[in-house]
Each structure stands twice: as structure tokens, then as C-alpha cells.
TrEMBL record:
Source species of the chain: Baudoinia panamericana (strain UAMH 10762)
Coiled-coil features, chain-numbered ranges: 109-136, 296-344
Domain of life: Eukaryota
Keywords: Coiled coil
UniProt protein name: Uncharacterized protein
Amino acid sequence: MSQLSQALAQSSQRNHELLSILAQTDYAGPALKQNVAFISDLQKQVSELDKELKKLHEVTEDERKDHVKYRDSTVKRFAYKMGGQKSKAKFASKSEKEEREFLEAWQKEREAKERREELSRALENAQKDKQHLDGDSTRHDQAQRELDQLYNSIFTGPTPEVPGEDQMENTVKDTQQWAQQCQTRLRTEKRAMDDLQSAKSSLTMALRDMSDARGASTWDMWGGGTFADMMERDALSRAQNNLTQAMHHIGSAMRAQPAIKPLRAVNIDQGHFLSDVMFDNIFSDMAQHERIHQSEAQMQQAAEDFKAQLAEQVERLRDADAQAKQASQTLEEARSELQRIRAEAFERLVGGGYGGAYGGSQEYGWQASEAPPAYT
């Protein structure tokens, strides 16, 4: 008996046990993912309903107070009584209206409470299911890790006795490398996207600041005086700070993704203290207003260019995400196929030897000689 056959014979029982655990718990991973999403949705519904209940309770209390106050009002009752039959009928109608509004509000609150109880029961059951699924998912992961270790200890390296195993083992290694490259690219594109989103926020604030500066400048031309000048200069200073922050974030994004271009040049004229404040007049105000207008136009154009770059990065991120998912799926299929080949080696041993050459998985369509797609 060869060394491989001895190793297979010694591990046959444990292999069978681990495969049985995997078969029993394969459902747990997908089911747990659905369960977590369901719990999250229920918790969101409960939170929203709690807010609604609070408002409904306030309405119910207000209506109850109005109803009780009107019903028990001796003065109103006496006044209507003194007015004759029409007044009595009017009092009764008004009293019925207050009671009806109270009952309607109470009914809405009651229905909301019943929905809240139903959601609570559903959430409690879902959380109980999660405990069970967590246990089975953990068992599945532990069994898979142990099976991987078992197979690696037996099959790592050349195993010509098992047709197709060496080729598929190399395919798994190549696919794993490709998947890692895809994940690296995805993380890089995400980092660049995060930086561009931060730059977008800074640019938005800078544009708002320029609008504030233009408004203060307009006020200054109409006699706003020193206070308008100070507001204008403060807004321009904020705009410059936010623009600098945007450029910093874009620079960080460029280091992650060289395809990103720098922000179009924007010159924010901060004004001149002597002419704008010390020697303030309509002509200096008009000149500064024009400079602000030009700076704002430059920033708007830069923002438009940036918007196009942001859209391009969205596409790059979407492409990287799709490729990473494809690589992950391909790797999972390759690993499953390798595990199938190795599991069949145990089965053939139990069945009395190795028979036939391996020609690929019918389930996944793998061929032992296939390599993963090229990384792009």
C-alpha cells in the first residue's frame, strides 16, 4: 500500500464525519445572511413604529383631555341647558364629536400597539433562529477548516495517484492569486472613491461660502458698511479653506488612482484690506464684487469638471467590485472542485481502488488544465 493510500485509510473515518457535518450545515451560511437582513428590517420597523406610537399617544391624550373636559364641564352644560332644546342638542352633538375623536385616536394607537407586539414577536423568533443558525454556521466553518487542513496534509504536493488533483490544486493557487489581486484593486478604488466623496463635500461647502461672499458683497454695495465687509472676508476665508481641503482629498485620491486628474485651478481673491475696509467706497465695492463673481465662476467650472471625474470613479469602482465578485465565485468553485476530487479519492479507496481518469467536474464545467481569467 502506498503512502497516500495509508494516509487516506487512516483519515477515512474523519473525512466521512466532516463531510457529513458540511452536508448537514451547508444551509446555515445563506440562511444566516437572510436572517440577519430580516432582523435588521424588523428592528428598523420597530424603531419607526415606536416613534409613531409616541405621536399617537400624544394625540390620544390630547383628545381624551378635550373629551373629558367637555363632558364634565358644568358651566358649558348649564349654558346649553339654559338655551333650550336646540342648545341641548348642540351640546350633545359637540360632546359626541369630542368622544368620537377620542375613540378614533385611541383606536389608531391600539392598532399601532398591536402591530408593535406582532413585530416584537417576529423579532424574538428571528433572534432565536439566529442563535440556531449561528451554531450551525460555526459548526460548518469549523468542519470546513478541519477538512481543509486534513486534505492539505494529505494531498499537498504531487499526487499522481489521484487523477486531476495536481492540476486543480495549481488552478486553485492561480485563482487565489487572481482573487487577491482583484481585492487589492477593489480596496484601492474604494479608497480613491472615499477621498473623492470627501472632496465633493468640501467643494460643496466652498461653493456655499462663495455664494455667501457674493451675497455679502451685494449688501456692501448697497451700503452694508464695515459689517458687510467683514462677513464677505469671512466667507471668502472659509471658501479658501474648504477649497484647500478639497484639493488635499483629490491629491490623496490621485495617489490611489493615477487616472484621477487634479482640480482645475481656482483663484479666490481675498480682497484688499486698505481699499475694501479702510477706504471703502462704491467703486472698490463694485471691483471686489466682480472679483468674487469671477472666483465663483471658476469654482463652479471646477466643480463641473470634478463631477465628471467622480462619475468615472464610480464606474471604476463598479467594475472592480464586479471583477472581485467574479474572482471570489471562481475561487469558490475551484476550491469546491478540488475538494470534490479529494473526497472522491477517499470514496475510491473505500470502493476498492482508483478507477478512471479525471476529466473535470460536471457540476462546474471545470477542466483540470484550465487557468483562471487573466487579471486586468
